[in-house]
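Researcher: Structure prediction, please.
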Amino acid sequence: VDTAYLSIQFDANMKRLHVACIRRSSDKNENDVCAYDAGTSMHIVDESHQSDWHHLIEQFENWKKRITQFLLRFGPRNGPSGDREHLGERTAETNDTFEQEFSQLCGQLEDLLAPALKTPMITAVLAEEGVEYVVLLPDWRIADLPLEGMKMFQALKVDNVIGSKPCIGRDFSIHMIGH
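Model: Predicted structure follows.
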């Protein structure tokens, strides 16, 4: 009852974005069978947004390579707080740049997904009382993107624990095997 499953899938050419969200309702139907709340949406991705998607995926891949090199260079020697201790090596400034770039990429991701995710059909299922967990089932082409960091998930409220947010995760055991 407390878990919503959110599937975000593109068609083969990334011209259509399909989103589906389902969760078991706390209500039962007249035959005493569990009922489900579900919503779907489909968004046509125009050529401009297709280009934006490809650019975002490429930018995130480049960001991952650069931050990996940065961490390998400074992490083992400086430790978790090393970026603040070695300002002469400009690691703090570089680290802040990586954080800002990551935030910008997350913002671009959310902007591109908003037309399909922030529809009444999808938000109604996610906003339903009692959602504590959201399991993401992303398209393989966007599986590397930081979907969990999107602000829309931070805005969801968990009703039975004051002030907490739902746990966001991915189901690799089922979803990723299919690719």
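Model: The beta strands are 3-10, 16-28, 34-44, 133-138, 167-170.
Researcher: Thanks, that helps.
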